[in-house]
Design brief:
The protein has a domain of 121 residues. The protein is built from 8 helices and no strands. The protein is globular. The model has no long low-confidence stretch (mean pLDDT 85).
């Protein structure tokens, strides 16, 4: 993809790589449909995964504090404190994924609002083949962001999985439509 952004010969590069864009799009659509069909499970798995990542990061930071920063007391205590914060946050999220989904849902609302703005700007600025689909993908992400924030916290148990699935479907559709357009004779 970075090749396409840096090279002014978009049509040729897009046509050459269109099978990959089609495959990535189809994979994203399938993943999105799976996420939608099990929205609550997707939410809980996502939250537990984030908790596990925070725990792992905490272990690494604590080990780093003792391995590298021991004896350099200002750096040692700072790194130890960061590691302990990671461990506490990861433990709290894993212990109560429902409560963790509250804060993560709000963060997701902000994320989708920003990614929607980025996709809209990207599609208008670069006008890739069938750029309208990328624009629609940005509008959908922006709408999802607004809906998440507006319905928070009531729907936080299923909203993460549902909206992640919807976003994956639309993002995949934009890839598929771009790939199909690239295959057409110019």
């Amino acid at each position: 993809m970075s090749y396409l952004l840096l090279n002014a010969d978009y049509p040729h590069a897009f046509k050459k790589h269109s099978p990959w864009f089609f495959l990535w799009g189809a994979a994203l659509i399938i993943l999105g449909l799976l996420a939608i069909s099990a929205a609550t499970l997707t939410t809980l798995i996502s939250v537990l995964f984030i908790g596990a990542l925070l725990l792992a990061g905490g272990v690494i930071l604590v080990l780093d504090a003792y391995k590298f920063w021991w004896g350099k007391w200002s750096g040692f205590f700072l790194h130890l404190a960061m590691g302990l914060l990671y461990l506490i946050a990861g433990y709290m999220i894993i212990k109560s994924p429902e409560a963790g989904s509250l804060s993560i849902t709000l963060l997701l609302g902000v994320f989708y609002t920003l990614i929607g703005i980025f996709r809209i700007t990207y599609s208008v600025a670069l006008r890739m083949p069938r750029w309208g689909w990328s624009f629609v993908s940005g509008l959908v992400a922006l709408l999802l962001g607004f809906l998440i924030v507006a319905n928070w916290p009531a729907s936080s148990l299923y909203i993460i999985g549902l909206f992640v699935g919807i976003d994956l479907v639309f993002c995949g559709w934009a890839y598929v439509m771009a790939a199909l357009t690239a295959r057409q004779p110019t």
